[in-house]
Amino acid sequence: MAFSCHFKVKFLLYTRANSLSPEIVTNNNLSIQASNFSSTRKTKFIIHGYTDKHGPWMIKMAQAIIERVKSQ
After folding, report:
1. pTM above threshold 0.85
2. Which end of the chain is less enclosed by CB atoms within 10 A, N or C?
3. Element (H, E) at 58
4. DSSP H or E run through 55
5. Please, which pLDDT band fits residue 31 given cuts at 50, 70 and 90?
6. 24, β-bridge pairs
7. Distance (Å, whole) CA 59 – CA 72
């Protein structure tokens, strides 16, 4: 029996340049190149589960991570 599952994964990019409003980055080179992503900087992922809710806690967590990395 074959099992197929398709998830609609979204990558929301927070950086120092956009710490309040994330950029949605897709899996194509143009999207990544047009974003504030830099492969020379540290990258952290926040994995929050299977809901498609983007709550205020995520913005606070992203800002806290950005501030923490900035101070190191």
Report:
1. no
2. N
3. helix 56-70
4. none
5. very high
6. 12
7. 20
